[in-house]
Amino acid sequence: MNLRDQFFKKPWLFKLILNHWGPFKGAGIRVVEVTPDFGHVVVELRETRRNRNAFGTHFGGSLYAMCDPFYALMFVARLGKDYVIWDKAATIHFERPGKGTVRATFSLSPEDDATVRQQTADGARYTPTYVVEVTDARGERVALVEKVLYFRRREAIAQKAHETEPPRMTGTGRPDA
Fold first, then answer.
1. What is the structure's pLDDT at 4?
2. What predicted TM-score, i.e. pTM, was given to this entire model?
């Protein structure tokens, strides 16, 4: 099993790698919890002088970064290699200044997995929106992040590519039958 496969199978490795990944480490972002089924991930951002903005509160880019990859990564771990999963769009709504340690909790259910499987079973694209709150130590919402994900079965993409592939030319200059 290669490192990529292990990353999506072993929560402790997922946590370890992300906690040492340059963009997260530099911003002060830490993954603090990952359940064995990758259905629940908790991420924290501690306020430091390196991630404060000009007003002395959390830099908005760091608040977004702490939420950026998790829903997509969680679904990759849960659904496996049969699916193409991308972040398609995102919106962040800042609701109050973030001070101290802030937290984002990401949760997926077996029903979320089943919905993706059902919506993509015929090869269709599926682009649902998932929402996560960033809260402060008092539990008050600092920001709300909406993530639009893209899902499609890999075999549907391969089939479409095969159907639209132009005919290959043979050495005779005629299309290959």
1. 79
2. 0.85
Q: What is the rounded CA–CA span in Å between residue 152 and residue 160?
A: 12
Number of structural domains (the chain) is 1
- 22-40 residue pLDDT tens: 999 999 999 999 999 999 9
Contacts of 128 (CB under 8 A, 6+ apart): 115, 116, 119, 148, 149, 151
The answer to whether position 175 is within a domain reads: no
- Looking at residue 135, which CATH number applies to its domain? 3.10.129.10
Q: What token pair was written down for 37?
A: 């089924």
- By DSSP bridging, strand 83-94 and strand 141-153 are antiparallel
Q: Cα(51)–Cα(30) distance, rounded to whole angstroms?
A: 13
Beta-bridge mates of residue 151 = 85, 126
Helices (H) and strands (E) in the chain, counts: 7, 6
Handedness of CA 116, 90, 101, 133 (dihedral sign): negative
Taking the CA atoms of 48, 52, 57 and 60 in sequence, report the sign of the dihedral they define: negative
Q: In the numeric block, which tokens belong to residue 58?
A: 């959390």
